[in-house]
Protein 1
Amino acid sequence: MNNVVIKNVRLYGEGDPVDVLLADGEIREIGTDLGVIDAQTVDGAGQVLLPGFIDLHTHLREPGREDTETIESGSAAAALGGYTAVFAMANTSPVADTAVITDYVWKRGQEVGLVDVHPVGAVTVGLEGKQLAEMGTMAAGVGAVRIFSDDGHCVYDPLIMRRALEYANSLGVLIAQHAEEPRLTKGAVAHEGPTASRLGLAGWPRAAEESIVARDALLARDAGARVHICHASTAGTVELLKWAKAQGISITAEVTPHHLLLDDSRLETYDAVNRVNPPLREASDVAALRQALAEGVVDCVATDHAPHADQDKCCEFAAARPGMLGLETALSIIVETMVKPGLLDWRGVARVMSENPARIVGLDDQGRPLAVGEPANLVLIDPAAEWTVEADDLASIARNTPFQAMTLPAKVTATFLRGRLTARDGKIVAG
Ligand code: DOR
Ligand code: ZN
């Protein structure tokens, strides 16, 4: 008996509560009078049911830095955060630039069984930006790579990027660009602006991101290819996306929860937990990113979950590694920054955290409507909950959350992968 009934839930937070029967990995029935059923019951307590979240941008650190995150610990963090699929970035050690690695990541994720861990393949060998990796063999492997990215590094050479886009187009896969012109960010650790100047931190100009976004939009146009912009962080990037989309260019973009909540005033303490690439920008950028996500100029939320060891974060700002944890706090931050101010309703949350990421990457078993016959990849959310972030309580091995001790709204109370409960009330449910 693997059937589950989720009782008393509001689909997309709308209308009267209903019961939802999950069987054989699908939504079998939705109604108020499902009769007596031999099934495990999950009390939905009138909470919000949405399609499970999909993260297009997660760093899981396996292979190579299992002291900071593994596919197992990262999968647990994802399930607790309401995710049913994540895309694990290629900047592991060794780099995921061959099918041996990308297939391993997929298989290990399936073994753990908490969330589908889709491998991201590197665009170039060793993320060095010099020679294209064997994208075709990675796409054809059991890991069936759908996203290629050198994330952490920019594919800065325009000719290599052009070839990557052409090649990706013929394979039907997506290039996700970490937009950073490296010649403009040499030594940079913080957003270039008054705060960095005052604090004596080397500045990272907006133009480092925007010049690559503009360039790649034009390259995608000429190649007739799609391009996806990772972690958009500036108001100028928003304007460029608007322009490119108006031209009919196939460009999509993601924004991180941290760029929607935090700005560079956080750097005043020199606490390196706030160091991230791209850097935290100014309040005006934050406002523009929120508006862009509400309007669909930025398509989706992606966490850029980036675990780092204490010794790499609890040190001088400029010596610290960039990156922050994100999987377990993402939903709450989207509620804080988008739902509470009235920029998104629950349908909007489903759109930016589930439906749009699934569409961008062509996953047909995720981000589906809450309807009979659809795959039962689901998340249950208590919209009235409040909780205080405590790094030591997170499932991630690393503890570098910038949201430590913040009280945030809304909590994931259950996650279902193909009809099976993976997380419930802050605990992993063993498979
Ligand atoms: O802050 C970041 N951390 N940005 C990146 O692009 C890479 C990531 C990491 O791997 O730690
Ligand atoms: Zn990146």
Protein 2
Amino acid sequence: MADPKKMSVADILAAARKKDSQGGDAPAVKPEPPAEAAPPVEASAPDAAAPAEKPKPKPAPAGKMSVAEMLAAARGEKPGAAAAPAAKPAAPKPEAPAKAPVAAEARPAAAKPAAKKSEAAAGTVDTSSILAAARTAARPGPVSKSEAVAKVAEPAAKPAKEKIVAPPMPAKPVYAQPKAAAADEDRRSFLAVMLGTAMGLGFASMAVVGGLWSLALARFMFPNVLTEPPSRFKVGFPANFPPGSVDEKFKAQFGVWVVNAEYNGQPQIVALKSVCTHLGCTPNWLDGEQKFKCPCHGSGFYKDGINFEGPAPRPLERYAIRLADDGQLEVDKSKLFQEELGQWSDAACFVPV
Ligand code: FES
């Protein structure tokens, strides 16, 4: 077998693992190297055990050396670094030879600072570094949370880096076109129109009501304005009213008949009020019968306005009439003349012809 002092650290570790797997009896990890490395321990033992005068600890059997002992033996390549830590633990527990492996395992831990210093000085690596390097390939060991997340995300990120050029999709036939989407679109548009229409109607109704209220307020704020026709109006020249004629042109607008008739044997043009003296109905001129006839209760009036039948108690009334400066007849509805009161004799209620 190769000399342990000339074996590399990797070889020693391989031999140690093989020995551990075989229960410590593997011939490849025979105790020669550690046994030869033991002398420094025995040489230093008297120094450590002398004060206590205890039995010298026997070196561990070569076939039962642990990995730590082998590592310690491997470090024996530098006697100054390996001998010092090996002697220290031997003194405190000399009476427990059976526990030698445990003590031997404790030795490297106690001798770490000195070994590290010597290895650093020699440009070598420590045991932990060697073990870490040996375990790294097979067992990466626990990782931090961030590293685990990165490892989980790493496979997902890889496909993204790959540029996969997908082939173009074949054109869909007409029957495969998304008709459902069009139906949904129509439905949505219908709902939108309905809702919009309802809201629009609501707002339009509110606007109409508001406008009506505004108009009512404006009408309330302004005074009433009479839209009645003027009380004075011209009806034309006297030649337009021949003798015996009854003109109804102004009945609808002004409530006046312009009549050219005789009253008490005097021909004159008068303006008769078209209101029945019974209860206020509007009589009609019956040209065939040459009379005014009230449709309500049958009162009848002659052409000059004198009542002669029906319940009417008195003749029709006259408005004031005169010749204006332009020669036209002008009627003034602000003045009334009643025959039963003898007012028809007033020249203001007729124009002699
Ligand atoms: Fe004209 Fe009665 S209102 S007859």
